[in-house]
Write a structure and sequence with these properties.
By secondary structure, this protein is mainly alpha-helical. It has helices spanning 9-55, 60-77.
């Protein structure tokens, strides 16, 4: 049973190039979506920190100083 004319090597190459280009486009789209997810995650984390500062009535400067003291103490303990 004949299945029709066989594709030439050039036609096979063209099909493969189109497939690769399509996959590359998809990869770029997925990378952009992932980057947006990372941005959203970071925004949520920063929003949580901001809420904690507000709840504890700390200014950003006070929080920074408290964190610096904590890190210094932790480094001294090592």
């Amino acid at each position: 049973m004949a299945r029709g004319p066989r594709k030439t090597l050039d036609e096979k190459i063209a099909v493969k190039e189109e497939l690769i280009e399509s996959l590359m486009t998809r990869i770029e789209s997925e990378k952009q979506e992932l980057a947006e997810m990372y941005r959203e995650k970071r925004y949520n984390q920063l929003e949580n920190i901001d809420n904690m500062l507000e709840e504890w009535a700390l200014s950003p400067e006070e929080a920074e100083e408290a964190l610096r003291r904590y890190v210094d103490q932790r480094e001294e303990a090592v």
